[in-house]
Amino acid sequence: MKPFGGVTFGGSTTFVDLDDQAGKPKLNLGISGLWLGEVVGVEGDIATTAGYFSGDSRSLQTLILRSHVATVTGNLVIALPRRIAQYGLRPYAVAGLGMMHVGFADNLRALPFSDALPAWDVGGGVTGFLSDFVGLNWDVRMFRTTGSQKTVSGVSLAPEQLSFWRATMGLSIRL
Q1: Could you give the residue ranges of the DSSP H alpha helices within 33-175?
Q2: Residues 77-107: tens digit of each pLDDT
Q3: What is the pLDDT of residues 143-162, one digit of tens each?
Q4: Taking CA 2 as the corner, what is the angle to CA 133 and CA 47, rounded to the nearest 5 degrees?
Q5: N or C: which terminus of the chain carries fewer CB neighbours within 10 A?
Q6: Largest CA distance in the chain
Q7: How far is the C-alpha of 23 from the C-alpha of 165, rounded, in Å?
Q8: C-beta separation of 13 from 57 below 8 A
């Protein structure tokens, strides 16, 4: 089990981004569960980024009241064999499929949006254990919707698309 926190950054979208926030760094939280053999494993990953499309809530110029992006993915993990990594850092690569929930509400209630879109992710990281049961994990991944063909009038400039990078640090707990 790996609870983590981090930052999303480098985002791009076809959604109308009223506060111009999609590419700006935002905090995220999540948790993942991993079963890893000697080299190959599977992982379930859940994370959320509150305020993804929202600007400074104290500013009168903020147009988006609430927003979030949540990801749920199932991933294939390939790691350096444990016998080679021994007690050092164990690097891994990850890729998977899942869903990305995108939601936002603007001040005027003219363009509210909430939908779950198919998505994929790819990335990598390293894990280092401090004891037999507790370690630290660093991870960088790119998330992207698969390019839904539906276009919602006024909310998206083209077929719904959202992508961003996520960098995290977390606790690795062996159960």
Answers
A1: 82-85
A2: 999 998 888 778 999 999 999 999 988 776 6
A3: 999 865 555 544 555 567 88
A4: 175
A5: C
A6: 59
A7: 9
A8: no
Average pLDDT (101-126) is: 83
The CA distances from residue 90 to 16, 45, 54, 136, in Å, are 41, 19, 37, 11
**pLDDT-wise least confident of 25-34, 79-88, 103-112:** 103-112
Q: Residue 128 pLDDT > 80, yes or no?
A: yes
pLDDT for the residue numbered 132: 87
R_g of the chain computed on alpha carbons: 18
CB 68, CB 52: distance < 8 Å: yes
**CA-closest candidate to residue 145, choices 124, 123, 164:** 164
| pLDDT above 90 for 165 | yes
Cα separation, 148 vs 168, whole angstroms: 27
* Alpha-carbon gap, residue 71 to 79, rounded angstroms: 23
The pair of structure tokens assigned to 23 is 């590419």
Residues in the chain: 175
Distance CA 117, CA 130 (A): 38
